Amino acid sequence: MRMILLGAPGAGKGTQAKLLMDKYGIIQISTGDILRENVKTGTELGKNAKSYMEKGLLVPDEVIISMTKERFKKPDCANGFILDGFPRTVAQADALEALLKEMSLKLDACVCVEVPSEELVKRISGRRVCGNCGEPYHIFNKKSKVEGKCDKCNSDLVHRKDDYEETVVNRLKVYQNETFPLLEYYESRKLVIKVDGLGDINQIFDNIVNLLNNRGRKAAL
User: Fold this and answer.
1) In a structure prediction context, what are the per-residue pLDDT tens digits for the chain, which is 221 residues long?
2) Are 69 and 99 in contact (CB under 8 A)?
3) Looking at residue 168, which CATH number applies to its domain?
4) Percent helix, strand and coil across the chain, each rounded to 5?
5) Which residue, of 28, 76, 128, 161, has the greatest Cβ tally within 10 A?
6) What interhelical angle do 90-102 and 61-72 show, nearest 10?
7) Closest alpha carbon to 181 in 97, 88, 84, 62
8) How many separate domains does the chain show?
9) Would 38 be classed as within a structural domain?
């Protein structure tokens, strides 16, 4: 099973990725992780990427694709993978498609977990975290016993700037502008599976699996 997993910040994409990894025995691939690993281990690709990063420039798509190609060759990708955070643009999607064709591989699906913007803002802006031990809380779903204090160490809870409502709204706008062309791209290839991200986590997962199974049966006909 090879898939791209899309979902706005707060949509629960990370939770579903873990469940899908367990279900299909596949790995999650983040290009950010690949990039950091190559830089850390000093590969030729890593050195090349670092030269751009040190100048404050974006690492070119061809370098990211080359790193992704090397990652696909590793044994733990044999059963498939979930691509997280890549591709981000249509140009990257084209490059990925060419790479998969070169390696005689194909994508099975592009899964998009959909949650209304109002709910996403509520989920993210309600987050709080202990400034001392890092224990997470939420003003709606996981309140502390004493308002503003951590249950574990009694330290102050922090509302991170990334979780401020206006910041969240801007992040969602960026995500939507970035993702819409990608959805059009993969819809034209009949790969998109849209899943309602509201409700019980396990039910959402079951819906994803059922849709993937239905897609697989149709492809076999």
Assistant:
1) 999 999 999 999 989 999 999 999 999 998 888 988 999 999 999 999 999 888 888 889 999 999 999 999 999 999 999 998 899 889 999 999 999 999 999 999 999 999 999 999 999 999 999 999 999 999 998 999 999 999 999 999 999 999 999 999 999 998 999 899 999 999 999 999 999 999 999 999 999 999 999 887 666 55
2) yes
3) 3.40.50.300
4) 50, 15, 30
5) 128
6) 40
7) 88
8) 1
9) no
- Asked if 12 and 115 count as a contact pair (C-beta separation under 8 A), the reply is yes
CB of 86 within 8 A of CB of 64? yes
**Neighbour tally for 172: CB within 10 Å:** 18
Structure tokens at 81: 């993978």
CA 155, distance to chain mean position in Å, is 31
Question: Parallel, antiparallel, or unpaired: how do β-strands 127-130 and 157-158 relate?
Answer: antiparallel
Residues annotated as part of the active site: 13, 88, 127, 160, 171
Radius of gyration of the chain (CA): 19
